[in-house]
Amino acid sequence: MATVPRQQMLSVPLLLILVVVVQAEPILKIRSTEFTRFNESSVEFVSSTSYNARGMAPLYDITNHVINVFVDENPIPEGYITVKEGEILAGPNVSDNNWGPLLKQYWAILLVTGICVIMIALMPIIGLCLCCCRCFGGCGGRSQPFDKKHDTCRRAILGFLLICSTSALVFGVVVAFVTNSYMQHGVENITTSARHGVQDTRLFLQTTSSHIDHLLNKNYQELNTDLKQMLNDASDNIIKRLEEESNAEKLTTLYEFVGKLPGIRESLQQMKQLTSDLRITASQLNDGLRGVKRELLTSLNKCGTQECIKVMEDYKIGRLNVNGIDYNSLPDLSQIIDSVTELIESSLGSAIQDGVEQMEQLKNTLKQTVLENIPKVQAASDSTGKAIKEVSDTLTSRLNNIADMLGNNSYKHLDTADDYITQYSIYRYYAGLGISSVLLLILICLVFGLLCGICGKRPDGYGDDCCNKGAGGRFMILAVTIIFLTFSIILAVALASFLIGTVTRRVACDSLRDPADDQIINYIDQFLDLNRLYSQLRSEAERSKSKLLASDTVAEIHLGEVIVTCQKNESIYKVLKLHNFVNIQSIGDFPEEYGITRELEALKAKIQIKSVEILTPEAKRDIETLRSSKLNDFDVDKFTDNLTLNITEYNLNEIAEKLRGVADRVPTGKEMNDIKVNLKNQALHLSSYQTNLVEPMIASTNQLIKLSTTLDSSLKFGERSFSDAIDKFLTQISEAEKYINENGKAFVQNITAELVSGFTRQIYAYVNLVIDSTQNDIGLCGPVHNVYQSVIVASCNRIVDPFNGFWAGVVWCLLLFLPSIIFGVKLSTLYQKSDPYPGPMVESGPKNKRRKKQDRRRESRDRREIYYEEGSPSHSRDPRYNDMAPKNWDGAPPRYQNPPMAPPAAEYERPPPYYYPGAPSEHE
C-alpha cells in the first residue's frame, strides 16, 4: 500500500478549513447599529470625604486605642438581645438574670466608672478636710518662718515635679480648648454635609433614571430606525446581490449600451464632420503658408542684414508648412454610421428590453413579497419597543419618585436640625468652654505660683514685692482650692463624655466604617428585615404583571453586604439585588414574546423566485448582429496616431512678432522700405492664419481625439475589441440565466436567511447591551458610597473624634491635678518661709523624739510671739532680733514721729514686724 506524503496529508484539512471559511463568509454586509453612549462626564457630585485633623490625629488614634481596650469587637454578648421582625426583645440571659458574661466583658468600664464615682464623692470631702486642717494651723497652714535644713532641696524637687506636671497639663488644656472648638465646628456643619449627601443621592438617582431612559428608550429607537431601514432596503439588497452573484447585471449594461447607440451615432457624425473640417482648413493653411513663405524668402534675402538672415535660419522659413500632417489619412466613418443607424432601427433594443423586463418582474415580485411582510415585522418591533419603554418609564418613574421623596422629606428635617443646632449647640459649646476655662485658670494659678515661687524673693513682711515666694504659695493654694471645688463636676462630665463617646464610636462609627459581619449592623439588618421588604416588592411585581418577571431564585440581602458591594462601585442592580423582583434577563424573551422572530421566519419562508428567460433566440441573433457590425472597424489608433496638436512647427504669432521687430530695424532706403512693408504684411498674414486657421484646427483636433478615445472605451468595455466585449456579454448573460434558474432559489433563500439572521442578531445585540449595562454600568454605586463616607467623616471624624479627644484632654488634666494638689500644698508651705536656714542653733533642742505633750502643744502654738516683742523683759531671745527703735508708746502699737518742721498731722502707724537698728549715737 502506497504511503501518502506528509505534506499531502496536511493540505487536506487546510483545504477543508478554507472551504468552510469561504462558505461562512457573509453574503450581505449588514452594518451593526452604533449605539450612542450615555455621557456622565457632566455630572458633578459635591460631597467630599476630605478631612484634616489639624494636628489632632495622634490624639484621636490614642483615644480610639483606649476605647478598643474597654470595648470588645462584639459589644453585646450573645443572649442579652434578640432582634426579629422589627422588634427588639430581651434575650434568655436577661430572663435568667445571668449577668456574668456582660460583667466579665465590661468589668474594665465598670471599674473605671466605680473609681470615678468614688472620687467624685471623696474629692469634696478631702478638700473640706484639707481646708479645716489648714484653718487650725495644720497641713501647712502655719509653719516656722525659717527654713529647715533640707527645705531648699525640697523646694527644688517639688518645683521640678510641679513644673513637669504643669507642662503636661498645658497639653490637656490645649486639647480641651481645641477639640471643643473643632467639635462645635463639626456640629454646625453636619447639616451642610447632610444636604450635600441628599443632593448627591438625588443627583445619582436622577442620573441613573436618565441612563435607564437613554438605554431602554433612545438606544432602542436607534436600533428600530436601523432595522426599519434594513427592511426597506431588504428587497434591493437581495436583488443586487443576486445580480452580482449571477452577473445578470451585464444584461442591464448591454441594454444601456444599446440605448446609447443614438449617442454613439451622433459622436461618429461629429467626428466625421470634424475630420472634413480639418481637411478643408489644412488645405487653406497650406496655400496661405506657401505664399507667405515665398514672399518672406524674397524679402529676407534682399534685406541681407544679419537679423534677416538669423530669422530665416532660426524659424526655417524655407520649410514653413502644416508640419507634415496628412489629414486625408484619417478614416471615413460613413459606413460605421450607416451600420449604427441600421442597429438603431432594428429590433435589438426591444429584444434586450424583454430580458430586462423579465429581471424587473423578478425584482418586483421579491420587493412586493418583502413589502407585504415589512409592516408585520415593524409592528412586532414597535410592540417590543413599547414594552421596553413601559419598563423604562416604570423604572425611571420609581427612581424619580424616590429622589423627590428624599428631597421633600430630608430638607425640612435638616432645616429643623439647623434650628436646634443654632439654638442649643451653643450651650454645649459654652459648657465645654467653661470646663476648658476652669482648667486654664488652674493652669495659670500653678504657672504664676511656680514663677513667683522660683523667681520671687522671700516674704519679708513689708509687702514691698507683689510677686514674692509668699504670693507664689498663695497662687498654689488658690489652684488647689479651685481643683477641689471643680474636680467632682469636671470628673462627672468627663465620665459621662467617656461613656457616651465610647458607645457612639463603637456602635455608630466602627460599625459604619467596617460593616462586614459587624454585630450592630447585623442587629440593624435583622430589625429592618430587608428580605421581608423584598418579598413584598416581589409579590407586588407578580401581581402587577410586570413586563420584567422576577427571578426564579430569591437571593437574601443584608445591609452590611450592600454597603461592602457599594464600596466596590458595583451597579445598583447588583448592590440591591434587584433581580429578586425585576429580572433583567427576562428582556431577552421580548423578541420571541412580541413576535419579531416569528414574523422574520414568515418573511424568510415567503421570499421565492421563479424561472426566467432573460434572452430569447431572437434577442441573441440581434446581439450577434451587433457583434458583427461595422463598429468593429472603428480604430482609435488611426485618429490618435495621425493627429497632433502641433499644427505648425513654430507658433505663427511668434514668427510674426519677430518679423515686425526685424522690419523696424531695417535700414532706410527706397528698396529697403519695400522690404520693410512686405515683412510687416507677411507678419499680419501669419497672425491671421494663427487665429483663424491654426487655433480652430487645434480645437478640432483636441475634440476629435477626445471623442475617439471615449468612443473606443464605450465600445470595447475593457476588452481587446468590440466583438470580444459582445461575446463576453452573451456568455455572461447566458450563465446568469442558468444560475438564476438553477441556483437562484437557494441563493435567495440564503440571502434572506442571512438578512433575517442579521436582523435577529441586531435585536439580541441590543438585548445583551441592555442586560450587560444594567448589571455592570447603570447606577454605579461609587457616588452613593462617597456620600456614605462623607457622612461618616462629617459625623465621626469631625464630631465624635473631637468629642472623645475632649474628654481625653480633660481626663489627662484631672489625672495631673492629683499630684499637683500634693506638690502645690507642699510648695505653698515652703514658699511662705521668710528666712533661710539659720543653722544648728535654731534646731538645737531635745534629741529625744518622744517629747512631752506640753512641749508639742507649745511648739504647735502660734510661733509669732517669738518674733513680735511685747516689751516683756522676761522674754528671752537672741539680741539681734531686738528692735532698737525708741519705745515712745504706752503699750500701744509703735508709731512714727512727725518731723519737727512738719505741721501737726495724724500719726502714721508703722505695721509690725519691723526692724530698727537704733540711733546712730548708740553705735558710736
From TrEMBL:
It is found in: Membrane. The chain crosses the membrane at residues 106-136, 157-178, 429-454, 475-500, 805-825. It comes from the Eukaryota. One of its GO terms (cellular component) is membrane. Residues 1-24 form the signal peptide. It holds the Pfam family Prominin. Residues 836-924 are annotated as: Disordered. Residues 856-867 have a biased composition (Basic and acidic residues). This is Prominin-like protein. It is a multi-pass membrane protein. Belongs to the prominin family. Keywords: Glycoprotein, Membrane, Signal, Transmembrane, Transmembrane helix.
